[in-house]
UniProtKB/TrEMBL annotation, chain A:
Keywords: ATP-binding, Cell membrane, Membrane, Nucleotide-binding, Repeat, Translocase, Transport
Pfam family, one: ABC_tran
PANTHER family per the UniProt record, alphabetical: CARBOHYDRATE TRANSPORT ATP-BINDING PROTEIN MG119-RELATED (PTHR43790), GALACTOFURANOSE TRANSPORTER ATP-BINDING PROTEIN YTFR (PTHR43790:SF9)
Topology class, membrane: Peripheral membrane protein
Name of the protein in question: Sugar ABC transporter ATP-binding protein
A Gene Ontology term for the protein's cellular component: plasma membrane
Protein's organism: Planosporangium flavigriseum
Annotated ranges, domain ABC transporter: 20-256, 282-524
Main location: membrane
GO MF term list: ATP binding; ATP hydrolysis activity
Record has Cell membrane as a keyword: yes
UniProtKB/TrEMBL annotation, chain B:
Record-given protein name: ABC transporter permease
Transmembrane segments: 32-53, 65-89, 109-128, 135-157, 177-200, 233-255, 267-290, 302-326
Domain of life: Bacteria
Membrane topology recorded in Swiss-Prot or TrEMBL: Multi-pass membrane protein
Keyword annotations from UniProtKB, A to Z: Cell membrane, Membrane, Transmembrane, Transmembrane helix
Species whose genome carries this gene: Planosporangium flavigriseum
GO cellular component terms, semicolon-separated: plasma membrane
Acetylation keyword on record: no
Pfam families the record matches: BPD_transp_2 (PF02653)
Any one Gene Ontology molecular-function term assigned to this protein's record: transmembrane transporter activity
Entries under CDD domains matching the protein: TM_PBP1_transp_AraH_like
Amino acid sequence: MPTIETSSTSVPLQSRVPLVRLEGITKSFGGVQALRGVSFDLLPGEVHALLGENGAGKSTLIKILSGVNTRDGGVLEVAGEETTFRSPAESRNAGLAVVYQELSLVPSMSVAANLLLGREPQNRLGLVKRRQLMREVEAFLETYNMPLNPKAIVGDLPFAYRQMTEICKALMGNVRILVLDEPTSALTGGEEEVLFDAVKRVTERGVGVIYVTHRLSEVFRLSQRVTVLRDGSNVATFATSETTMKSLVAAIVGPGHEGLRSATEAVASDAVAADAAATAAPQVEPFLKMSNVVNDRLRGVDLAVRPREIHGLAGVVGSGRTEILQTVFGLRKVASGELQIDGQARKVRNPIDAIRLGVALAPEDRHEQGLVLSHTIERNMALPRIGQLSRFGWFRRGASVQRSHEAIKELAVKAPGPSTVVGNLSGGNQQKVVFGKWRDPTPKLLLLDEPTVGVDVGAREEIYGVIRRAAQGSTAVLVASSDLVELLLLCHRISIVVDGRIVKTVSRAELGNEEDLHHLIQESQSLAQESQS
Amino acid sequence: MSQTVTAPAVKESPSSPGPKLAKALLAGDRPYMLYFAFAVLVVAFSVMSPVFFSTANFLNIGRQTALVSIIAVGATFVIISGEIDLSVASTLAVSGMSAALAMQHLQNSWYVGLLAALATGAVVGLINGVLTARLAIPSFLVTLGTLGMARGVALLVTDTKPVIINNDTYFAIFGEGLIAGIPVPIVWTVLVMILGALLLHFSGFGRRIYATGGNATAARYSGINTKRVKTTALVLTGTLAGLAAVIFTARAHAARPDVVAGMELDVIAAVILGGTSLFGGRGAIVGTLLGSLIIGVLNNGLVLLGVSSSLQLVIKGAIIIAAVAFSKK
C-alpha cells in the first residue's frame, strides 16, 4: 500500500498549495438556505477542525465535499484545480474519504477483510490471496500503531474498535484528505489517545484532516486551525494556538444566546453546588445499592446512589460502565451479590421489573435502543407508559398527546408538535425525546448512558439542566460517560470502573479539572493491570 | 450520522392540499396510490365488462374475498410486529376439519363447530408464537414448518377424506344467511375489520405492536414484553384463520383437508399492497381492506373478461409487483 512507505516531508504549512479550497459555497434545499457562502481551506499535513451547532451547515459542507450533494454556487478547488464532485465515488477517486458516525463495515467479516474490501489482492483466477491480504493489513496496523486484531470479526468488536476499523479503512485507500465526523463520540481514554496518535501519523505524511467535532478540548489538542460555522456561514477561522475555549464557544453560539457559559466557568460554579450536595447527601438512605454484584461482565460491583445525587461512572470503553447500568435495568442477570432498590433486595429480571420500581434508562445508542425513529414523538414518548396511559386496554391518545405537549414544552424540544417523526429531529432533540419518555411519573432512579453523544453545545447545556432538575426533584441519577468534562459538570460523586469493578469513588470536590479525572482513570487502570500480573 | 438535518431542525413543509395530493400520487404515498389503483381497476373493469358494475357482482366480490380479508386483518398485526405467518391456509384447513369432526362426533351445534375451529386456529398460532418468540426461530421458518404440519394433520385425521357438515343453523350464521340483504360472510368481514382497526389503532396492545415492529430493542428497553406481543399477534391470526375456516365450511357444507392451498400468498399480498411495511412498524387496517379488495376485484374482473386462469396468475402477479413498486418511497 502506498501509505505504508513513510517519507515525511516537513515543508512549512504556508508554502503549500491547499489540498482543498472552498470559496463562497452556497447551497439550498427547497426554500432553505443551508450554506450562505462558506469559505474554507485545508493544507497538507494540517488538522483543521470544523465546529458549529447542528444545522449550522457542517453536514451540508461535508456532503458537498464528498459528492453527495453538489454546490449551487462558489468555487471548489482540489490541489489548485477547480472541480465538482458529482458522486461519492468521484470524490473518493480524488483522494477524499469521509468517516461517518454510522459505519460502513460488514459486521460478519474480519477486520482485515473489511480494511481491503473491494481492493483485495487477487491472483490470476480472481481468488483472494489471503496471506498477502493479512500481511498488508498487519503491516498497516503496525505502522499506525492501531490496537486491532486483523482476524477479529467486526461485529464482535466494541463500538470504539469498529470505528477505529472504519478510520483505518479510509486510511488504507489512497487518501490525502480525511474527513472525520465526530470520531471520538464513543471513544475514551486509551482509544482516544490512539486515534489522536493515528491522526498525527497521517498528517505527518501530508494528509490533511478535516475534523468535525462537538468537543472543544479535542480542537485544542489536535488541530492547527479551527473554523466555526453558524447559520450556514463561516463565522471565523482561528489559528488554534491563538484562540481560547471561551471565544470559540461564543463564536459557535453566536451573539445574544441566553445561558452562554464557557465550560470552565460551569465547572467552577458547579463545584460549589456539588460540595453542598455531597455534604448533605450521606444522611439519606441510598435508592440504589449494589453489593458485590457479579455477572457475565461485572466482577463484584459495590455502589450506592442516593436520591438527589448525580453519580458518575468513568472508565474506558469496555470497562463495564454500560453493563452496570444494564444490570440495574434488568437487561443482564445478576449471578451473585445483592441488588437493592428502594431499600429492599430486588430481583430485576427484565426492564419491566425495573420500570415498575421507578427505574428509567436513557441508553447509549439512541437509534438502536432508545427510539423508534420512524414513529412520532408522541408514540415514542408513550412507549414506557402504555399501560399507565390505557384504561381497560384502550389507549387514551388524548392524554398521551397532552403528555407529549408538556414534555416538548418543558424540555424545549425543537419540533412543530407531538406528531413530528423522531427520525427528522437533530441528535439533541432526539435525546430530549428519550428524556420525555421517562417523565411523568418522574423516575426515582435515572440511568444515563452517554447522555450527550452527538448532541450540540446548546442542546447539551439544556440536557444538563434537565438532569440537574431531576436530581433536585429527588431522583437518584447514575450517569456513565466518556466525556470527562461532562462528568465533572454534572456529578456529585464519580466512581472509576475498571474491568467490571468499581475501584474508586471520589467526591466532586476532590477533583480539580478534566486532567485530574483523566489522571485518576489512567492510574486506576494501571494499578488494576499491575495487580493482575 | 445522527444529524443529517441541514438547516431547520425539522423538515416538514406545509403546502396547500391540492398540489399535496398530486404530489403524494406522483411520489407514491401509499394510501393515495392505493385509492388510485383501486379506482383505476374498478373503472377499467366497468368499461370492459357489462356485468362488473352491479350490486350483485360487488356482493359477489365481497363474499369471495371474505376469507382473505379476515385472515389479512390478523396478518396485518403480525407483519407490523415485524414477523410473518405463512401457515394461515393450512391453519384454515385443519381448523375446518376440526370444526366438522367436532360437530360430527361431539355435538351437532353451530357453537361447537365455531369453538373447535377457533381453538384449533389459536393452538396453531400459539405454536407459531412460542417457537418464534421463546426459541427465537425466525417466524418465516417456524410458519413454513407449521404450514406443512398443519396441512399434514388435516390430511391425516380422516385419511384425506372430506367430512360432511349437516347443520342448517351453522350454514345460516356463517355461510349462506343474509342480513339486510348482505351475505353473512361480508358481515363477518366488516365486523372483524372494525374490531381489528379498533384494536390496532386505539388499544395499548396496538401501540405495542407498532413499537415492537418499529424497533424491537427500543421497545424492550422501554418495558414492552415484545415476546408476548409477537405471540399474541400470531395467536390472533391463527384464531382468525379458524373463523375463516368456519365461513368456508359453512358455505361448502363440508370440510376438506386439501383446500385453499397457497392462500397465504394472497393474504400477504393484500397486507403489503395495503401499505403495511414488510419490515414492520408501519401499516393500517384500512390499507389491508383496500389491498384485499384490489385482489378480489382483480380475480373477479379477470374471470368476467374471460381471461384464462393461467394468464390470470401472470396478470395478478404483475399488477401486485407494479402496485408495490409504484408506491415504494
